[in-house]
């Protein structure tokens, strides 16, 4: 029958060995932290930290999508703004030609008016090309059409759709990033129809151009108004992009606080733990071996 003394010695040895195993586990974890630079290597290291890290990563992915959407919107609106600015300049050129043709001596000179009409026709074609400006292969004035043009290149008729191109740039925030074709007018006031009328009247009777001149002025105002609106949305998108990037930086810092290890501290802890473990190992060897011999006797 095993004596009480031997049972006590066995219990002591078991506790000592368990302590060594715990020390070894702590040592291995510290080594892993120093090697990987992470204090959370697997879910069991910190269940709460792991959940928080997953939530932060999901939020970071969302902010990344918002930033990309805003950046795309900025580029798309920038393309539209450039097109509108060009259109405004071209409309002014048309207006100047109309006034020239309505005034002496051109008004009474069929050849001069024919030349002016040709210039206006060329400006009309250039404006039509501007109206078909694309961004990544899609017309910026064509709504959500899958086609490559917003206006028929011959007649100037609108061939896009009434859809709106939207970009989500924040929680619950969407911004329109296209420009409606109505900026060029509709029906009889559609810019390309007006220009066709101007060309025809310039050749035959420039005295009837006053109404067309008024419609050109209306078109110019519509374009100017839209340029201002695009500028407002452009600023909104820029602010949204900056906000998303700032939030990503903040989330990255929070994620680092959860996952990343203080490397300098971890190295010191590893050295301390290693020294302690080696000392405990040596002490245990001195204690356990005699006890084992006593038990075997």
TrEMBL record:
Q: Where in the cell is it found?
A: Secreted; Bacterial flagellum
Q: Which residues form the Flagellin N-terminal domain?
A: 12-138
User: Residue limits of the Flagellin C-terminal domain?
Assistant: 214-296
Main localisation, per the record?
Answer: secreted
Query: Transmembrane: present as a keyword of the record?
Result: no
Family to which this protein belongs:
Belongs to the bacterial flagellin family.
In Swiss-Prot or TrEMBL terms, this protein is called Flagellin
Name the source organism: Actinophytocola xanthii
């Amino acid at each position: 029958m095993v004596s009480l003394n031997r049972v006590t010695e066995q219990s002591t040895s078991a506790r000592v060995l368990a302590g060594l195993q715990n020390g070894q586990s702590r040592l291995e974890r510290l080594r892993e932290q120093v090697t990987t630079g992470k204090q959370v290597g697997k879910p069991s290291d910190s269940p709460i930290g792991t959940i928080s890290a997953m939530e932060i990563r999901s939020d970071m992915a969302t902010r990344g999508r918002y930033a990309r959407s805003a950046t795309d919107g900025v580029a798309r609106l920038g393309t539209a703004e450039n097109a509108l600015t060009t259109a405004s300049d071209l409309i002014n050129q048309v207006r100047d030609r109309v006034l020239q043709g309505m005034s002496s001596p051109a008004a009474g000179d069929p050849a001069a008016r024919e030349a002016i009409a040709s210039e206006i026709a060329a400006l009309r074609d250039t404006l039509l090309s501007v109206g078909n400006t694309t961004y990544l292969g899609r017309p910026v004035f064509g709504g959500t059409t899958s086609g490559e043009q917003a206006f028929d290149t011959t007649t100037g008729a609108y061939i896009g759709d009434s859809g709106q191109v939207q970009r989500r740039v924040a929680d619950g925030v969407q911004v329109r990033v296209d420009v409606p074709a109505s900026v060029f007018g509709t029906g009889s006031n559609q810019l390309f129809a007006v220009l066709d009328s101007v060309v025809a009247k310039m050749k035959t009777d420039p005295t009837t151009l006053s109404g067309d001149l008024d419609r050109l002025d209306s078109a110019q105002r519509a374009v100017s108004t839209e340029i201002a609106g695009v500028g407002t949305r452009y600023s909104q998108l820029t602010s949204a992009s900056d906000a998303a990037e700032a939030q990503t930086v903040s989330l990255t810092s929070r994620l680092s606080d959860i996952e990343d290890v203080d490397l300098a501290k971890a190295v010191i802890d590893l050295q301390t733990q290693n020294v302690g473990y080696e000392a405990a190992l040596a002490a245990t060897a001195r204690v356990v071996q005699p006890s084992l011999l006593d038990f075997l006797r």
